[in-house]
Amino acid sequence: MIGEFVFQRFAMSFSKAHILSEIKRTAADNAGVPLGMDRFEAVTGIRYADWYGVHWARWNDAVREAGCEPNQMNRALDKYGLLQQYAEFASELGRLPVEGDLKMKRRRDPSFPDHKTFLKRLGTRSERVSQLAEHCRSLDVFENVVAWCEAELRSSASMVQQSAANKGDLSGYVYLLKHGSRREFKIGRTNNALRREGEIAIELPEKAQPVHVITTDDPAGIEAYWHNRFAAKRKNGEWFELTAADVAAFKRRRFM
Predict the structure, then answer these.
(1) How far apart (Å, rounded) are the C-alpha atoms in residues 219 and 105?
(2) How would residue 7 be classed by pLDDT, with cut points 50, 70 and 90?
(3) Distances from the Cα of 33 to the Cαs of 71, 82, 86, in angstroms?
(4) Which of 13, 184, 224, 232 could form a disulfide with 179 if both were Cys (CB 3.0 to 4.6 A apart)?
(5) SS3 240
(6) Residues 179 and 208: beta-carbon distance below 8 Å
(7) Quick one: three-class SS letters along 13-71?
(8) Which residues contact 164 (CB under 8 A, 6 or more apart)?
(9) Which tens digit of pLDDT belongs to each residue from 233-255?
(10) Residue 251: which of 226, 233, 227, 234 has the closest Cα?
(11) Phi-psi sector, 14: left (phi>0), alpha (psi -120 to 50), beta
């Protein structure tokens, strides 16, 4: 069934003419104002990856070709646009930027988003890094940025584990892993999240990517909580077909 779903998704491609038609239609329905990328995807089902690098390099280019005037406010607040600028800046720096880098970039380039915008729209440092890695993987670009993100996420998880071990009051972890480029996620528990990741990776056709780890003194109970919460989306065993909102809900918890 999963293979059939993946085949159907990849078989569904959107022509340039169709996307332009949808930009015009949704703009007309929105009092003549073109939608931002996030809202456009929600309304039409046409994803960022369906047009970026396929028909256009920038959303504003697509909007202009559709005969509309780009909505600068929508673009400035768009999550995809923020992640893309974050990735481009990281690649320019040769590492993941810290808050000071973002402030200096803004002073040099007033069109670059304020550092507070990244915090407000993309969350904490670890949340931003997780989303940045997923953004780059989904577009198959910025492999160096993905590698930096994965290294930082592994380091953060290790620090949480060490802190818990030093306190002696937390006994386990509930983790979320993504199966390569697929929309399949595994929710499991372990006493060592990084060791468990390595163990299950050899069982999969694609590399398992760490998404988030929750530190807890009740790994069995917390694992059961998430399994029950996503029961309707279970594929088999501990594997679930989750949406971006589901993943975001899991990532909001660091301790339970």
Answers:
(1) 42
(2) very low
(3) 7, 21, 26
(4) 184
(5) strand
(6) yes
(7) CCCHHHHHHHHHHHHHHCCCCCCCHHHHHHHHCCCHHHHECCCECCHHHHHHHCCCCCC
(8) 170, 215
(9) 888 777 888 888 888 888 877 66
(10) 226
(11) beta
